[in-house]
């Protein structure tokens, strides 16, 4: 068997489910969806040229159908993880864009879900544009078109993650084992929380973050009335307290850190920092050649060159 056969077999081993089926789309409709998903113009030609169809590429189409069934069959909170390996290199552009095709074809299912939840369309649009951001990042990393963050986008398309202004909020249930500690005043094991994520598309000014936090509790109370979210949690290299040793107190990062009460472990995350600050794929990059044009870039490089490590901080806050 070829690598492609093995990969297809792995996807088709996933359990099927009785959900709305995928439907082929015209080139014009696919192009319209790419705009809504925020996919950069540079990738449109490649995505459209390799879009599978049931007649022309039946094996790829069946793999897409099965992934779509997995996407919408399970309870989104405990079952958010999927086992979707990257396509083998021998598939070329069709493989690199395979999961873009999946989310493009799944867009009607997401829109129907958001309509049932009465999600405002501007929130829907802001949320799904993260796909395009990840496609743009792939081109920065590899200097070619593609997408490899399929596991991350599951949250968006299952209706657990929403972007509200500057920040993203993801419905979750706190598992203390992940944090190894429980604060007297913070969220308790097994309680609903909103996991906070910070898209990398602009400054996270205190004013923009304030506006996002103000929107969060009313939004989720309205659209998920059976859930009660009193706390937000965050796990990010941006919460590494070492950053405060390199950045001024007035910096947006340091001011963001002050919002959180820290708890839990702080594992090394050098690759995450290099990825988000210097746009490097994990495990790559010569420190001596990295740009050091900003205070943050200089801090990242100098700390690593001195033998230090950057760490993923964890924190909680009470939602306003």
From TrEMBL:
Molecular function per GO: acyltransferase activity
UniProt name for this protein: Acyltransferase domain-containing protein
Domain annotation GNAT-like C-terminal: ranges: 161-317
Pfam families, per the entry: GNAT_C, NAT_N
Domain N-acyltransferase N-terminal stretches: 29-159
InterPro entries from the UniProt entry: GNAT_C (IPR041644), NAT_N (IPR041273)
Acyltransferase as UniProt keyword: yes
Keywords: Acyltransferase, Transferase
Organism the protein comes from: Lentzea sokolovensis
Presence of the UniProt keyword Transferase in the record: yes
């Amino acid at each position: 068997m070829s690598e492609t056969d093995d990969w297809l077999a792995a996807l088709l081993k996933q359990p099927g489910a009785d959900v709305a089926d995928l439907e082929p789309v015209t080139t014009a409709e696919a192009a319209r969806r790419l705009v809504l998903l925020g996919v950069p113009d540079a990738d449109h030609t490649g995505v459209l040229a390799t879009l599978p169809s049931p007649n022309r590429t039946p094996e790829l189409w069946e793999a897409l159908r099965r992934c779509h069934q997995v996407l919408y069959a399970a309870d989104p909170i405990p079952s958010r993880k999927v086992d979707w390996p990257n396509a083998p290199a021998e598939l070329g552009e069709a493989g690199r864009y395979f999961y873009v095709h999946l989310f493009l074809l799944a867009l009607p299912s997401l829109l129907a879900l958001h309509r049932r939840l009465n999600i405002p369309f501007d929130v829907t649009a802001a949320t799904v544009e993260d796909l395009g951001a990840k496609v743009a990042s792939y081109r920065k990393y590899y200097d070619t078109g593609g997408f490899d963050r399929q596991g991350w986008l599951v949250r968006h398309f299952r209706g657990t993650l929403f972007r509200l202004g500057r920040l993203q909020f993801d419905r979750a249930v706190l598992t203390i084992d992940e944090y190894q500690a429980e604060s007297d005043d913070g969220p308790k094991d097994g309680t609903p929380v909103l996991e906070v994520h910070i898209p990398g598309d602009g400054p996270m000014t205190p004013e923009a973050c304030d506006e996002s936090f103000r929107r969060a509790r009313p939004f989720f109370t309205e659209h998920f009335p059976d859930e009660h979210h009193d706390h937000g949690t965050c796990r990010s290299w941006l919460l590494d307290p070492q950053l405060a040793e390199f950045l001024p107190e007035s910096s947006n990062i340091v001011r963001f850190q002050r919002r959180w009460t820290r708890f839990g472990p702080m594992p090394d995350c050098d690759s995450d920092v290099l990825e988000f600050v210097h746009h490097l794929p994990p495990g790559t990059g010569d420190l001596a050649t990295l740009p050091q044009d900003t205070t943050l870039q200089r801090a990242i490089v100098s700390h690593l060159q001195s033998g230090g490590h950057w760490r993923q901080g964890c924190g909680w806050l009470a939602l306003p």
